[in-house]
Amino acid sequence: MYTLWIANKNYSSWSLRPWILLKALNIPFNEQLSYFEHGKSSIEKFKAFSPTGLVPCLVDGYLTIWDSLAIAEYVAEDHAQVWPKDRVARAWARSAAAEMHSGFTALRQICTMNCTRAIKLTEITPELQNDLARLDALWSQGLAQFGGEWLAGDTFTAVDAFFAPVAFRARTYGLTFSPVCQAWVERMLKLPAMAEWLAAAEKEPEITH
Question: Which pTM does this prediction carry?
Answer without folding.
Answer: 0.95
